[in-house]
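Hi all, long-time lurker, first post. I run a small reading group and we've been trying to get comfortable going from sequence to structure in the token notation. Rather than ask abstract questions, I figured I'd post a concrete chain and ask someone more experienced to write out its structure so we can walk through it together at our next meeting. Sequence below, copied exactly:
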Amino acid sequence: MDNVVDFIKIKEQKEQDNFDELVDESQQIEQSLEIFGMEAVHDIVEILIEDFDCDMYRDPKVVFDIVSIIEQIKSLAYRSMGKEYPLHEITNSMFENMITDPKKLLDFFMTGKDPEENS
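-- Answer (accepted) --
Happy to help. Here is the structure in token form:
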């Protein structure tokens, strides 16, 4: 009976391998978004310093705003991928009463065209 193939163990190992692969992919996406967010905010901060004469060292808590922007970038990416992100609840509650037609505003943002002008 030593030559019996244990299909249950093979299936379990395959499921574990698939899970591990998904976790690795998710971690790679998270890391890439983190790096992208940091680079984007660095560019924004440079422009604020050079063009708007902002002093990032005036208040060390500016780092809270920097981290917030990085998190917002990740939130934007995850929402556009159809994935949940903790910040979604916060942004939903902040803006759902102010933005009555999200699709209309998104279309305007993405195209630069006011849909009211075509009516």
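A couple of things your group might point at:
The radius of gyration is 22 Å.
Residues 9-85 form one domain.
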